[in-house]
Amino acid sequence: METPYTDHLSAADYEHVYEPAEDSFLLLDALEADLEFLEKQLQPRLCVEIGSGSGVIITALAKRLSHAAHCLATDINPRACEATRRTASRNGAKLDSVRCNLTNGLRRRCVDLLLFNPPYVVTSDEELLHQQGISSATERNLVYSWAGGRRGRRVTDILLEQLDDILSPGGVLYLLLLHENKPDEIVQQLARLKFKAVKCMERHIPGEHLYILKVARIVN
């Protein structure tokens, strides 16, 4: 997959929107490594990225799967929704970007391919709530894009409990995690929810050990 151009985004944009970094590129690499599965087996009709930020991941996917899939980005930050639209336009990709929390508003069990690079940095819940209280306007408070609360899983755990209602019967989730999020524990949690999760890629970067979990329903 081509890495999208981001030269249309400025330093001023990145004051409001998460700038693509090593975690973003790891998720892109995982998708590229799995392209044969995505295109020949999964053949998704609806692809959704939660928390699209600058839009680089969903834009890359939309360009690659433009012949068959509809791509949708969601974010609670209106600045991120706008940045995603601009990134898609800059790169000639067709997708929709809507402001919502996670996948609220989508029809039940309709997502074939779900992507999520969640707020994963371990913080105290008190710190997270304090930061949120400083500015409730999400476009002016980047804490939403990185602060994950206790174990860095405050948002991730909410999504996992909703996953059965989000994914289509054959749907797949690619989830980015930090070592401190305890990915092995999440694998066990997903098994209790009747999902199988495997670590499909991992990467050490300065100060972080990142993983991509590939998650699908357990087939009886």
UniProtKB/TrEMBL annotation:
Localization in the cell: Nucleus
Cellular component GO terms, alphabetical: cytosol; eRF1 methyltransferase complex; nucleus
Family label: Belongs to the eukaryotic/archaeal PrmC-related family.
Record keywords, A-Z: Methyltransferase, Nucleus, S-adenosyl-L-methionine, Transferase
Family matches, as CDD domains: AdoMet_MTases (cd02440)
Residue span, Methyltransferase small domain: 36-134
Subunit field text: Heterodimer; heterodimerization with TRMT112 is required for S-adenosyl-L-methionine-binding.
Classification of source organism: Eukaryota, Metazoa, Ecdysozoa, Arthropoda, Hexapoda
GO molecular function: nucleic acid binding; protein-glutamine N-methyltransferase activity
Keyword Cell cycle belongs to the record: no
Descriptive protein name: Methyltransferase HEMK2
Originating organism: Drosophila grimshawi (Hawaiian fruit fly)
GO biological process, alphabetically ordered: methylation; positive regulation of translational termination
UniProt superkingdom: Eukaryota
Described purpose of this protein according to its UniProt entry: Methyltransferase that can methylate proteins and, to a lower extent, arsenic. Catalytic subunit of a heterodimer with TRMT112, which monomethylates 'Lys-12' of histone H4 (H4K12me1), a modification present at the promoters of numerous genes encoding cell cycle regulators. Catalytic subunit of a heterodimer with TRMT112, which catalyzes N5-methylation of Glu residue of proteins with a Gly-Gln-Xaa-Xaa-Xaa-Arg motif. Methylates ETF1 on 'Gln-185'; ETF1 needs to be complexed to ERF3 in its GTP-bound form to be efficiently methylated.
Family annotation (PROSITE patterns): N6_MTASE
Catalytic function, reaction form: L-lysyl-[histone] + S-adenosyl-L-methionine = N(6)-methyl-L-lysyl-[histone] + S-adenosyl-L-homocysteine + H(+); methylarsonous acid + S-adenosyl-L-methionine = dimethylarsinate + S-adenosyl-L-homocysteine + 2 H(+)
Plastid in keyword set: no
